[in-house]
Fold this sequence. Notes:
By secondary structure, this protein is mostly helical. Helices cover about 75% and strands about 0% of the residues. The protein is built from seven helices and no strands. Helix 3 packs antiparallel against helix 5 (about 75-100), helix 5 packs antiparallel against helix 6 (about 105-125) and helix 6 packs antiparallel against helix 7 (about 135-170). The radius of gyration is 20 Å and the shape is elongated. The model is unreliable at about 5-15 (pLDDT under 50).
Amino acid sequence: MSRRSLNDHTLYTLTTTSSDTPFHRKLMKKYDRWTVICFIIGLINIFSASWMLIAPSHWYYNLPVGIPESGPLNIHFIRDIGCMFLLLGCGLWIGGFLLIEFRLPLFTMNTSFYILHMLVHIHEIVSGRMRMGIFWTDLPGVYVPAVVTFILNIILIRKNKSSTIQQQILFQN
């Protein structure tokens, strides 16, 4: 897959089908690379939420990051967190597919949670509550998603800012 195949123009391209109506064309033009990004991150959140809501004990003991080191099993609390992940995942899907104009705030909300979650983990290590080695265990599931979504959020903010400026220029002319 070449870099060119992932640009906005190729993802907007329509194929001619029997359902080639104005509504269908308008709907298809909404889907871009950010739709895919929101779908993937939302799907990860929804999978995590499902695991927490359906089998909280299994999630607690089998998530490969040493959750039992952080304290005793609290099924109610795990399900509360699962509800939050479900909300964030659904929000990303809504921002990715349905309400494109709300994509930035919905993505920012998801990023904010990831960043705050990362800061809690950093505090736990720095304060001595958790052992230093847990950093490497948390790296793929806590720190990397926070940094990646933060970078993506900055790119999305810049994209929205530039498209807003372009719209203002068009309306002035």
